[in-house]
Amino acid sequence: MKEQEKSLLWEIRFEGAATPSYLFGTMHVRDFRAFTFIEQAYDKLLQCEAIALEFDLDEAPRGLDVSLLHLPKGQSLEDLIPPRKFKKMRNFLSKTTQIDLLQLRFYTPFFITNTITNQILAKDMPLALDQHLWQYAKRHGMPGFGLETYEEQLRILHSIPLEQQLKNMTDAIRHIGNYRRSIRKMADLYKEGNIYKIYKSAKRSASGARELLLYKRNKVMASRMFELAENRPVFFAVGAGHLAGGKGVLRLLKHQGASIKKVDIH
């Protein structure tokens, strides 16, 4: 794989598989830019017999421990941030994003940062891209699978040190203009299909949690792709930030013996 090979869609030929599977990089948003290559995704999806996302959307709410989205019991953001600073941050965030920090005070800083990100991007489509692809596959009678369980994802997020989460959140709020530009730039990079710059941006935003948010999850997803595609072609759709890089899913699949080929979608 060469860096100039920009593409969000890749043909994956697993050893022993009669037909290829496909890997598509997504964004978990409703912004119209995320749907730039939707027709090309449809084409390859219909050549497969199943779809697999980061987690099974049909099973996501079942057995979910909602405390994984919350701070430790009895704790709130107001315990972590000095009162004057909290008030200032709340007022500033409300003016710039219409998000009330007080209403989210029992949630983890990571969840709040993600809420800010979703608020920044447009909501042009009824569903986020990965949800849209899932429903499209279901309408065509395909079974759906998850490369991780929903609880596995949440437990990883919950294991990020609270101090790191808090720093990332406060930095995003304090420099909301820069944060807004970086998020919108990510959407523009997606529209270009530039998975290498998307990866670099994802790595920067993960900061001290790269091992948990990117590298560890990449290993799990690559391994489970092999298992799922052993007996049938599967359309895999995961966040575009997981594809590229020395520890990215594409490189891991290649190291495990899969044949990787870019699909030209421009």
Helix and strand arrangement:
Layout: E1 9-13, E2 21-26, H1 38-45, E3 50-55, H2 77-80, H3 83-97, H4 109-120, H5 129-139, E4 144-148, H6 150-158, H7 162-174, H8 176-192, H9 195-206, H10 210-228, E5 234-239, H11 249-255, E6 259-262
Parallel strand pairs: 2-5, 3-4, 3-5
Antiparallel strand pairs: 1-2, 1-6
How would you characterize this protein structure?
It is a single chain. The protein has 266 residues and is α/β, with parallel strands linked by helices. The protein has a domain at 9-71 and 122-165 and 186-262. Helix content is 48%, strand content 12%. The chain contains 11 helices and 6 strands. The protein has helices spanning 38-45, 77-80, 83-97, 109-120, 129-139, 150-158, 162-174, 176-192, 195-206, 210-228, 249-255, and strands at 9-13, 21-26, 50-55, 144-148, 234-239, 259-262. The chain has a 6-stranded mixed β-sheet, sandwiched between helices. A hairpin with a 7-residue loop joins strand 1 (9-13) and strand 2 (21-26). The chain is elongated, with a radius of gyration of 19 Å. The mean pLDDT is 90.
Give the helix tally: 11
The ordered string of helix (H) and strand (E) elements is: EEHEHHHHEHHHHHEHE
Per the principal axes of the C-alpha atoms, what is the gross shape? elongated
The gyration radius over C-alpha positions equals: 19 Å
